[in-house]
Amino acid sequence: MRILGITLPENKRIEIGLTAIYGVGRPLAHTILDKAKVAYGLKPKDITIAEENAIRKVIESFKIEGDLKREVSGNIKRLKDIKTYRGSRHQKGLPSRGQRTKTNARTRRGARKTMGTGRKIAEKK
């Protein structure tokens, strides 16, 4: 089953499979399936064409995938352009929500780069 160019996993329940789409989590997946009147426990391979079309129609009413990515990147660009504190943190690749950076923050800052003391160079001279 393909929705918006994304192939949903065939052997997972539809409520879990919908989360493969960017911007769809479990709560939104439940909302989509409730509006489309499809059971959560069905697998994508067992869904009828009518149910599949109902799910597609409901999903089109939400902002997901490319539109959502564009909106998020636009919001970040706006913060950078107006030179807010949050925008400057995004530019520097640091956490923007007040977390400590002396330790941790590895997700944003990347892998550790060990700094040497410079002792070995001094000994050789």
TrEMBL record:
Gene3D superfamilies: 1.10.8.50, 30s ribosomal protein s13, domain 2. This is Small ribosomal subunit protein uS13. InterPro entries: Rbsml_uS13_C, Ribosomal_uS13, Ribosomal_uS13-like_H2TH, Ribosomal_uS13_bac-type. Part of the 30S ribosomal subunit. Forms a loose heterodimer with protein S19. Forms two bridges to the 50S subunit in the 70S ribosome. The keyword tRNA-binding applies. The keyword Chaperone does not apply. Transmembrane segments: none annotated. Located at the top of the head of the 30S subunit, it contacts several helices of the 16S rRNA. In the 70S ribosome it contacts the 23S rRNA (bridge B1a) and protein L5 of the 50S subunit (bridge B1b), connecting the 2 subunits; these bridges are implicated in subunit movement. Contacts the tRNAs in the A and P-sites. The lineage of its organism: Bacteria, Candidatus Zambryskiibacteriota.
